[in-house]
């Protein structure tokens, strides 16, 4: 070991430099191989959170959760238990029933990891009846909390800046009496307030490989480029791109099969978003479970002016015609009319992708008028053909 240390860290004679570099490279190689092997061994994350339920109300004492749970490791997709007086948590006989069908006196502990797709500032909205506490990462301080049992369902908000990637998430909750409920929402960069979906929650607290690691929307001339990255796919059948104008009702705009394994990058160009606000989310269809959803992202689609370009000027009797991309199935009808008003040339044009069209009308030198009819209207230009 001493000789190795000397070789690596003492000032070596020139002839030993190459050997030292070789060893350092070898060390890096071993480190990289080790890291790759560790990543490959980590299981693909299981969507949702781990839930443990306890008999009795925790009464704001976190030591309460050190006792054995009555219901152990029950997976939940997300924290979406709206205020109710029925057994929406499905805790059954571990609760006390002061009124038929309305469970009281139980507590829950929910844990796992949250994958943050985009770094930035996030707000977490913790709604509960009765008390609830939310922690992110290792800190002892709760990010948001509703203490006590003297109020009905209410919402606490906590704000923080998060890096992209995995963050541990823990929620303690308890129902004392009356109605009960627990709802966890968040908002962030391009991310309107929404329930935290199962596609960014993982029920394991140890090392995992996430599935969705990036989701990006890029507006492009009244179209939206949807791109997503996955680290590893498990029992994945297809991705369905869904779009909405209100963030509530979604329609399917594309479906593509999963490649399998990973990592992968997927892309889809949506040529027909609405003008104004659009929301997109991914639905991952799986062979082993119900669908897994990404968060919904918002993007604003601004109208692009319709510019009809004819070039070059002057021309030699032929020219190029170009308009903005109008999307799948979009056709245009080009007509050229002479100075006396007679139709002398016409041609159908595919206007889907915005590519220039080479027009060869075969007409005599002179002044004409060009008309282009599209789904966005009919546009007209003076056309001079030169030779
Ligand atoms: Ca209750
Ligand atoms: Ca209550």
UniProtKB/TrEMBL annotation:
UniProt xrefs under Pfam families: PA14 (PF07691)
PROSITE patterns the record matches: PA14
SUPFAM superfamilies for this protein: Anthrax protective antigen (SSF56988)
Coiled-coil parts of chain: none
Residue span(s) of domain PA14: 44-200
InterPro entries (UniProt xref): PA14/GLEYA, PA14_dom
Transmembrane portions of the chain: none
Protein name: PA14 domain-containing protein
Species the sequence originates in: Hymenobacter polaris
